[in-house]
Amino acid sequence: MAYNYNVCHCIPYLMLRKKCIEPYEESWSELKLFTELAKRLGLEEYFPWASEEELVAFELGQTGFSFDYLLNEKPEGDYYQQKSYTIPDGTFKTPSKKIEIYSDAMQQAGFDPLPTYLEPLKSPQSKKYRDLKKYPLILGTGNRSYYYTHSQHRNIDALNGQDPHPMAELSRNTAKDFGIKQGDDVSVSTDRGTVFMKASVVDCVADGIVFVPHGWSGQANANLLTDAKCREPILGYPDMKSLMCAIKSVEISR
């Protein structure tokens, strides 16, 4: 696949990840999954590629690089153009060709055309807070583990040994306020559900915040805490960073 995530953001640099193994047993590649889904929806014309190689070659078309070049000649990747820190006239894809603070598109969609702060539906300042007082902390979900990719690779013993437990992160002051110590078994609850994790007391989390990782299954699944009805009203993006929660030490029999 084309590698353009994280280290390459805003840099005109491309590299390929070589395939490590063939799909295991009945698993499919993303291309096959979306292609088969498109066929069933009558949208197969939008997925004309017969293989991952064809798709990546298509993606590389405008860079001037061939699939073989990045796969064999430059496996470490290459720059496909010079990085420019200037903005030539007329490059902004807006009606005025300038940076626009006032958005006609937002106004046409029925929203405020000017940037306006919108309080989360469930927060200490929201109207719903009176119903959420038993959840005094702010929840953030989606923390990444260096050892896994989303829910993948958690069946690999070598990685499990490095990161065996889901860790709920909180500050020293928050941990002290709630009688929690490093490594304690804890429950994290919202008005939607409860997960069970271990506590990680750290210096990089603000007081009053609890961060929980994503990708774990069962009773550590962060999706048990979130609320699909709490959505940003314009694009419909779900609120996963500012819900209200509670945390406490628990005893878990193992």
Task: State the CATH architecture of the largest domain.
Answer: Beta Barrel
CATH class of the largest domain: Mainly Beta
Low-confidence stretches: 1-6
Mean pLDDT: 88
Q: Residue share in helices? A: 10-25%
Order of helices and strands: EEHHHEHEHEHEEEE
Rg on CA atoms, Å: 23 Å
| Global geometry | globular
Summing up helix and strand content along with how strands pair, one would put the structural category as: alpha+beta
Number of helices in the DSSP assignment: 6
Oligomer: single chain
- Write down the CATH topology of the largest domain: Barwin-like endoglucanases
Termini distance?
41 Å
**Domains (count):** 3
Question: What does the main sheet amount to?
Answer: 6 strands, mixed, barrel
Query: Beta-sheet strand percentage?
Result: 15-25%
- In the sheet with the most strands, the strands line up as 4-8-5-7-6-9
How many strands appear in the DSSP assignment? 9
Domain Molybdopterin dinucleotide-binding: 138-241
GO molecular function: iron-sulfur cluster binding; molybdopterin cofactor binding; oxidoreductase activity
Protein name: Molybdopterin dinucleotide-binding domain-containing protein
Keywords: Iron, Iron-sulfur, Metal-binding
Descriptive notes:
The protein has helices at 30-40, 52-59, 67-73, 104-108, 157-162, 172-177; strands at 2-3, 13-16, 78-79, 137-143, 167-171, 185-189, 194-202, 209-213, 243-249. By secondary structure, the chain is an alpha+beta fold. The strands form two sheets. A six-stranded mixed barrel has the order 4-8-5-7-6-9. A three-stranded antiparallel sheet has the order 1-2-3, with no helix packed on it. A hairpin with a 4-residue loop joins strand 6 and strand 7 (194-202). The longest helix has 11 residues, at 30-40. It is globular. The model is unreliable at 1-6 (pLDDT under 50).
